[in-house]
Amino acid sequence: MEQRWSLASVAAVTVAALLFVAAPLFVPGWILFLLTLALAKFMAVLAVALFLRCGLVSFGHALFYAIGAYTVGFAHKWFGVREAMLLAPLGLCLGAGAAALIGLIMARYRGVFFAMLNLAVSMILYAILLKLYWVTGGTDGLGVSTPTLLGFVPPRGSFRMLYYYFTLVMAGAVIYLVYRFLASPLGYFLKALGDNEIRIEYSGQSVRRVIYVTYVLSGALGGLAGVLVAFTVGHIVPEYAFWLQSGEFVFIALLGGYASVPGPLLGAIAFEFIRTYASKYAPYAWQMTLGIIMLLIILFQPGGLWAMYEAVAARFGRRAGGVERV
Amino acid sequence: MSETMPILQTVDLTKSFGMVKAASAINIQISQGELVGIVGANGSGKTTFLNLITGYLKPDRGRTLIMGQESTGLPPRLVTMLGVARSFQIPQLYTGLSVLENVLLALAAGAKRGTEYWKPLYRDPWVEESLDLLQQFGLKPYAYRPVAELPEGGRKLLDVVLSFALKPRLLLMDEPTSGVSIEDKFEVMDTLVGVLQQSDITTIFVEHDMEVVQRYSRRVLVFDNGEVIADGKPESVLTNPEVRKAILGRE
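The joint structure predicted for all components is written out below.
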């Protein structure tokens, strides 16, 4: 259905935006770190969520995430480049470029083949990153020094805040672009693809083209996410390309809800906090904690956390006499 | 295209599934503006014929030409781009979208690519055109409802709207009244034929209901075991005892 922004929605978005902007003023450093990490990972989760919308699941999008992260590592190691304004678009382009090549194959497959082929390609990269020790650092990975922003080296104390804002701006741009994509005919065809491929083909539209364009976009998002996580964490390891990382993206998409753009963001933030607290209070059972949460989500809230928000917003909207959807 | 160029021409079109001949050397020509009904018993090759024309099936032998252009073996997407659209026996709709969004996507599919394409699907000219189309087919009250809420007759009509929105030269409809109640089938056909007569679209519809074919078609093709056994005006063809035997199993 066409989305019309009610007053309540505009107010909710404004409050959320203000909270994100003001966060560095009232949250401690470790929370700011978690938020930065969540904002960065959100982009890779969104990449996976795009395909979940049409019933395709990818267990290999860590490939593009690793490409973005290693772009930062190699640029610093080989060329001494650590400019964030250069590396972010470079990681994005390399992610998109890799997706443009791999997508030629992936656009032909559906279902379990799509899922496993993605996994296979990402595991090939993982093996390369692991074995080419003299290039990639192997299991030791690569260290990333503090990036510069427009040539400016941020002072030690303000680095975390500065890169939080940098990631926030990138996340804002991604949200806008993905909203535009999903509102376009191609975005609707993507949603319709899970319903009826036959009708799409009999409309003169290419299903493969829809999947391919989405795949390139998802590669770009994964690449950008990798760059931003590399900046935030400061160290890159081959596990960035491992299938468990891809599984984590799928997990977060389900946790937050993949049918909307804010769902993966909510999921990414919730995931980082759940993992942090679960590791602290149940260090030997944090994975079980995540498993139980996923079980509860699938059984009782398959639309994810965002669906819970929508249900509450709809109830308030009805009470206020507002109309959210037309 | 010259005035005499047929919209559709098949030459020796043949297709078998194992021992079963679903299309046996079919040679027909359909001219601009014709309203052709295809009848035949179950398994006589009616739907196979549509599938061969639209590229869903590839013929074992023979050719199909759309407005003189070779379309043999082309996939459905490319056949559609030649100006052929079709509706299905089981309506092929986007069930997760609203009725309006289904039509908007059909208009979007026919739109030119380029920067314009990246604008939102909900754009005023398309929304107006979609609502106009839905109005013509009597579906406007359902425009903003999910497809799942449409009655069967409405789903059939929407399936045709999605084909009609592509502005085809040739429209193929596969059993447009199957699954529709006896009371509603003439209403559905009245709506369809009424809209089609106002357009310049050549139409072929497959139907096993002789009454529907007799009332609405201007020309009838009768299929039996993959062959066209009769071709002519409905009043002469459908009264032929041999034809009635082939269709009904009795005279």
